[in-house]
Design goal:
- The chain is of the alpha+beta class.
- The protein has one domain: Muramoyl-pentapeptide Carboxypeptidase, domain 2 (2-Layer Sandwich).
- It is 30% helix and 16% strand.
- The protein contains 9 helices and 11 strands.
- The strands form 4 sheets. A 4-stranded mixed β-sheet has the order 8-11-9-10. Strands 4-5-7 form a 3-stranded mixed β-sheet. Strands 1-2 form a two-stranded antiparallel sheet.
- A hairpin with a 2-residue loop joins β1 and β2.
- The N terminus is likely disordered.
- The chain binds zinc ion.
- Zinc ion binds next to β8.
């Protein structure tokens, strides 16, 4: 009896360990072959079955940092990026440079994000490469180009040299898409948008967050019918330009202790199968 319990416990703990070990998720090079995609768990602790691969180049976009192999996502995310690229091209806004999406089967990563685990998050650079409109960037350019911050050196304001109305138009186009849940931007960018005489209805989805001065982070809603996908609480009503935003410039917000501590991640049990299946 004791041995059985011991074995059960051993099994249980080894399962948890396999799931949460980021190395295992980083090592898997291919998506599962499942035909129906499933985003499983939370954006910050989950995985992805049946991921789609975003092609390196498409109308109005190019993928950066190919060596990171974070160009996988839920098919809805791939479609979203392609749609945004087409918008950028049609409106002559420049070429979108795409940063991290997710790993082949989602899950935790060794470097970078805590989120991006269910294939529904993507980082898009603010830099709109006019040069990339005319040609495909080389592998080395995609590795070595920097993503410049759109803030001033003191980070107290948006730098008009780096920021343009094209950035604003792209954020607006993304925020207006029904599949977009929220978009994380640096608080100074949110402030700039709040002060503009732009329509405020789309600002609700634009959420201030730490960093995010060189890219914005789009998070899609859980796909319809994806029962394993855990929704985040809805964005609060209103444009988010009032007291919520003011907090980001308070002394409290600047204290390092307010930056979220790394939590131990426990993935849903269903992710074990995702890691191990064909
Ligand atoms: Zn991100």
């Amino acid at each position: 009896m004791k041995v059985t319990i011991f074995l059960i416990l051993l099994c249980f703990f080894s399962t948890i360990e396999a799931q949460t070990d980021a190395r295992a998720w980083t090592k898997v090079e291919k998506p599962t072959t499942a035909r129906i995609a499933q985003s499983i768990g939370k954006y910050t602790s989950g995985c992805l079955r049946g991921a789609a691969t975003l092609p390196q180049n498409g109308n109005g976009y190019q993928v950066m940092r190919l060596s990171r192999t974070r160009y996988y996502g839920h098919p809805d995310l791939v479609q979203f990026i392609q749609k945004m690229g087409q918008t950028a091209q049609n409106q002559h806004l420049g070429t979108l440079l795409i940063g991290d999406m997710g790993q082949a089967r989602g899950g935790p990563t060794l470097t970078g994000h805590r989120s991006h685990q269910t294939g529904l998050d993507v980082d898009i650079w603010y830099l709109l490469a006019k040069e990339a409109e005319k040609r495909e960037l080389s592998f080395n350019e995609r590795e070595s180009w920097g993503a410049p911050s759109v803030l001033t050196v003191s980070a107290n304001a948006v730098n008009p040299v780096q920021w343009s109305s094209a950035n604003e138009q792209i954020l607006e186009a993304a925020a207006r898409l029904p599949e977009v849940d929220r978009i994380f931007v640096n608080a100074r960018i949110k402030q700039t948008l709040c002060e503009r005489k732009t329509a405020h209805d789309w600002l609700q989805k634009i959420r201030p967050w730490f960093a995010h001065a060189d890219h914005f982070h789009v998070r899609l809603k859980c796909p319809a019918g994806d029962i394993h996908c855990e929704k985040q609480e809805p964005v609060p009503a209103g444009d988010g330009c009032g007291a919520d935003l003011a907090w980001w410039f308070s002394v409290e917000a600047q204290m390092p202790s307010k930056k979220l501590p790394a939590k131990k991640i426990l993935l849903p049990a269903a992710c074990d199968a995702v890691l191990n299946e064909e």
